[in-house]
Amino acid sequence: MTNIDYRHSIEAYERAKRVMPGGNTRSSVFENPFPIYVKSGRGAYVRDVDGHDYLDFQNNFTALIHGYAHPETLAALTAAAGQGFSFAHPTTSEIDLAEVLCDRVGYFERIRFMNTGSEAVMMAVKAARAITGRSKIAKFEGAYHGNYDFVEVSFDPVPENWGQDAPEAVPYNIATPRSILDDVVVIPFNDLPGTKQILCDRRSELACVLIDPLPARVGLVPIDPSYLSFLRQFTEQHGILLLSDEVLSFRIGYGGALSRFGVEPDLCVFGKIIGGGLPIGAVAGRAGIMKVFDSSRGKASVSQSGTFTANPLSMAAGAASMSAMTAEVFEQLDDLGEYTRRRLREAIAESGVSAQVTGMGSLFRIMIKEENVLDYRSGFPSNCERDRQRRLIAFVRDNGVILSATGLGALSTPMTTLDIDKMIEIIGRGLQAVDSQVTK
């Protein structure tokens, strides 16, 4: 137990347990023995209810590319709030954000907004089914695509159930219907021979192949270009849609993740950074494919709505935030990302701890792992590795730096090399502390 004074966070957690199951209403922020409760944020820092300040590399799970209280975004949001929070009518604010996004990505001819990344993935899958007339989908083992039964399949399989010769379709939640498992084909990330064999056997049944170019839960390892090229060629050849889930990875390039690989998917699913810190999701693609959502000539093939979809606050904040993310700003943030990963690898080498760093663009992940991480299975932690990772993350938090529980970090535009150096110094001490505890 830490000797840091977290009394107000503990009190808040005790209150939460009286009104929420397990004191929690968002599984991703659950933490034992208690989570820290954040009160405010500005720039690259957040402050908790006990008055402690933290250099925040979590940025609400990568959503805040400008950190906190970004002036242009705050001004746009304040102006929009004064006009009304939401309406049962369209507003020009949704056109503004749509134009900003379509202008920066060549194949974004039409766009459709949702409230979350999970909802966007769900609608993209429905679109693929409507266009192809097929029901089955394929996805990577270990890849996270949100809260939707079909894409949750094999999100977190373990060695006891993940299959030996080929990945098994493993349910994420108890009592997931067998019919859902039967409609999901699980493929091994970056394994071209294995994936080719699996997909060839099911090619006439597949509506789509759902990919993540930089899957965080798989290890934040970039998709192999030859593997991606195969998937693009295979899907085109067999009338299958290629869906790119860039909810997290849209931040690694001015035109999104696949623009860095020179490949155009049929539909791109994205969110997080495009909302300026507010709830949002989106699906975009060529006009011919996106017409599946068109209701101007009667009932659309895929009907999609939502009370708060394209609400003016998310639209205004998103337009301001993304307008500030010019190509030059992306390049600067990418350079800072390269600096971060290089400095982390130096710190690991100096510590002598078996660990590694993955990532791309403004994203990085540090893993206490001896085996080289190439996919979900090679990145799966042993109990010892999981415990050491947990203690490392707790150490850096208690010393004023926040990373996700998995060691994932996301840079924000207010950060400088001085912030990175601060994190490196603390992580270096954390690695030594964790190693000394194991040695003892």
Automatic annotation (TrEMBL):
Keywords: Aminotransferase, Pyridoxal phosphate, Transferase
Cofactor(s) this protein requires: pyridoxal 5'-phosphate
Membrane-spanning residues: none
Transferase in keyword set: yes
Transcription keyword on record: no
InterPro entries named among the record's database cross-references: Aminotrans_3, PyrdxlP-dep_Trfase, PyrdxlP-dep_Trfase_major, PyrdxlP-dep_Trfase_small
Matching Pfam families: Aminotran_3
Molecular function as annotated in GO: pyridoxal phosphate binding; transaminase activity
Stored PANTHER family: GLUTAMATE-1-SEMIALDEHYDE 2,1-AMINOMUTASE, GLUTAMATE-1-SEMIALDEHYDE 2,1-AMINOMUTASE 1, CHLOROPLASTIC-RELATED
Family indicated by similarity: Belongs to the class-III pyridoxal-phosphate-dependent aminotransferase family.
Listed name of the protein: Aminotransferase class III-fold pyridoxal phosphate-dependent enzyme
Naturally occurring in which organism (per UniProt): Pelagibius litoralis
